[in-house]
Design goal:
330 residues; alpha/beta; D-Maltodextrin-Binding Protein, domain 2; single chain; NitT/TauT family transport system substrate-binding protein; 16 helices
């Protein structure tokens, strides 16, 4: 009888241990949509490849939406849980009267990520030389175009009167349209800008990120209802991003390129490294996920200057820093 009791107790212990291990190994799947595939988002790919999400018990299902409107549609329709997109989209949604607010909870990039690329070398370039040129612009209402217009106006250039501004090309097709078309100038992200330079298709002559200052260019967003129901998961998600941001700060461009190479298989590692170094040198990668009020106000100024600010949305309405502050504090 004693032996049977001991055997039963052992079985129960093993069962409890198995259940505990199973529970500990369970992961939460987060469906994440990025607005585009960009080297600009290097810390996000580092978080995935270095296992920072995995350490937090999160399995990331990443998809590329190819456009701010498509990314936000996926988030609002609950096709994804988290969106990585420009903060301006949360303001657009708010202005449309959405009952379920879109909350900015973690910032990934803190400057514009585009560079001014010219068809021909411009060794003595000054901004005023853009006047009367044909300029291939970005999508109306998107961050690249709004920042571009903001910078041009800072240099006394009216983009709609002083330039032949073209805005009829989809985001994904802009590089090809510039390469084959008549435009003299274009805004391009990395690594496309450096690739064009290497292939002789264009020449990087200025940085819109350096000219425009800090702005919440790309942030992670969620619906307020999702945040209320999954606060601990979002805290773990933010922790993984913060670890990745610190890792990017502490490692060389070459080491970062090595880690994120799988996301850019068609780009040479040297181009990746030089592009990452360019972004690091101008402070484009946020060193922590906090979106501060000064950045938010700068965003609204840029939108207002472009005539795209639908209403003045207070910082506290669409930005939640409580989770980030707790993550950093711990």
């Amino acid at each position: 009888m004693v032996k049977r009791f001991g055997f039963a107790l052992l079985c129960c212990s093993l069962l409890i241990f198995t259940v505990a291990c199973s529970s500990a190994n369970e992961k939460t799947t987060i469906h994440l949509a990025e607005v585009t595939r960009s080297l600009f988002y290097a810390p996000q790919y580092v978080a995935i490849e270095q296992g920072f999400f995995e350490e937090q018990g999160i399995d990331i299902e990443l998809q590329t939406a190819w456009g701010g409107d498509k990314t936000m549609t996926a988030l609002l329709s609950e096709g994804v849980d988290v969106a990585l997109v420009g903060s301006e989209t949360s303001i657009y949604v708010h202005a449309q009267g959405s009952r379920d607010k879109v909350i900015n909870f973690a910032q990934l990039t803190q400057t514009d990520g585009t560079f001014l690329v010219a068809k021909e070398p411009k060794p003595d370039f000054t901004w005023e030389k853009l006047k009367d040129s044909t300029f291939l612009g970005q999508r109306v209402g998107g961050m690249p175009q709004m920042v571009g217009e903001y910078v041009l106006k800072q240099h006394d250039i009216d983009p709609h009167n002083d330039l032949n501004l073209l805005q009829n090309v989809d985001f994904a097709n802009i590089p090809g349209a510039f390469s084959s078309g008549d435009a003299e100038y274009v805004q391009l992200f990395e690594p496309t800008a450096s690739t064009f330079e290497k292939e002789g298709k264009g020449h990087i002559i200025a940085s819109f990120g350096e000219e425009s200052g800090h702005v919440p260019y790309t942030t992670f967003m969620i619906k307020e209802s999702f945040l209320n129901e999954n606060e601990e998961t979002i805290k773990d998600f933010t922790n993984a991003i913060y670890q990745a941001q610190q890792w990017v700060q502490e490692h060389s461009a070459e080491e970062i390129a090595e880690v994120i190479q799988p996301y850019f298989e068609d780009t040479e590692k040297e181009i990746l490294a030089s592009s990452i170094d360019r972004y690091k040198s101008q402070g484009s990668f946020a060193t922590d996920p906090i979106l501060d009020q000064e950045e938010w106000n700068n965003l609204k100024d840029i939108m207002d200057e472009a005539g795209e600010l639908p209403e003045d949305v207070p910082y506290d309405d669409l930005v939640n820093t409580t989770i980030v502050e707790e993550v950093i504090g711990n």
